[in-house]
Design brief:
Length: 117
Amino acid sequence: MKPFQANALNALVIIGLGLWGYLGSANPSPTALIPVGFGVIFALCTPMMRKENRVVAHVVVLLTLVLILALFMPLRGAIARADTMGIIRVSIMLATAVLAMAIFVKSFIDARRARKA
């Protein structure tokens, strides 16, 4: 999977599951839309990543790392509430963000090796 594809997948999952969590809640909090905002930013950056824009790629990597760290609080909250669907939603968002991060890092390593060769 190429970095722009991983970013697009991550964006779709984050937006979809984030909206599901917000709209499916009995008393939604506006902070539940934060991951959706990240997903929109990722989606907007995907075409530039496809064109191999390095600056955008580095910004997306940084934002993905921030998102991974930020998703631990909702996961802790869902676990404390014993909210099985919430745990599943946040875990899937975390999994796709970690997958995207791994693909980004591998891409950076491959690019550095190619430059040295």
